[in-house]
Amino acid sequence: MNKLRRNCISVGLAAAALTVAGLAAGTSAAAESGPDNGKTDQAKSGGSHCTLSVKTRATQCFDTFREAIAQATAGRVTDANLSGLASVDGKTAAELNEGGFGTASVVHGIQYYWENFNNHPPPLHTLTVSGTAPCTTPTETEYVLAPLPILSINWNNNIRSFQGFNHCWQRMWDHPECSGLLWDYSANSADLGAARDRTECIIFS
Ligand SMILES: [Ca+2]
Ligand SMILES: [Ca+2]
Question: Measured in angstroms, how far is the CA atom of residue 24 from the centroid of ligand 2?
Fold first, then answer.
């Protein structure tokens, strides 16, 4: 087991308290939340398809999903679909999951602005998070991402679906200090349901 993989890389605030209070998606009516229905805080500027490296904390945004995936994989995967519409296809998913040791950049998760992996009319936005190695066993924490980045959109309270890659699972929390569990260990979700537009902390595991 590579020791590097076992280190917890804290991006932004560290998880202060990993309590499971509030478990069960979307049951806390008083919890801070984003828009209930239509998205209101649309992109102001910059490309809609962004990447975040957990190693360098660098972010970049691109006009196309294809460009974002190419950057997130250090040029290894260059044929992802252009728009970010719907989930990555099976071929691209397989390519993303080939990212193992020795590759420069390994995709851990893609966050989608809309439910059903962005299978929705525009505007479409994606946030692809990458690291330098695959994740370890699903319930062993890799790192905390909180608060979420503010790029062409503010990703806080704006995720409706996500996909994990390279053995990475996600837990989603309502607040930037990683409290108020919204969504427990999962490899993906096509629709966060009552937890839509509420995530401000993701723990990758
Ligand atoms: Ca929230
Ligand atoms: Ca893990």
Answer: 22
Domains in the chain, CATH or no CATH each = 3-15+47-204 (2.60.20.10)
Ligand nearest to the CA of 108: 2
CA 180 to ligand 1 center in whole angstroms: 8
157 alpha carbon – ligand 2 mean position (Å):
24
Q: Which residues on adjacent β-strands are paired with residue 59?
A: 52
Burial (CB count within 10 angstroms: exposed 0-12, middle 13-18, buried 19+), residue 58 = exposed
Which pLDDT tens digits describe the chain residue by residue (205 residues)?
333 333 334 444 333 333 333 333 333 333 344 444 577 665 556 799 999 999 899 999 999 999 999 999 999 999 998 877 767 889 999 999 987 667 789 999 999 999 999 999 989 999 999 999 999 988 899 999 999 999 999 999 999 999 999 999 999 999 999 999 999 999 999 999 999 999 999 999 9
Centre of ligand 1 to C-alpha 157, Å, is: 5
C-alpha 153/C-alpha 39 separation (Å) is: 11
Q: Are strands 126-131 and 49-53 parallel, antiparallel or unpaired?
A: parallel
How far apart are the CA of 80 and the centre of ligand 1, in A?
A: 30
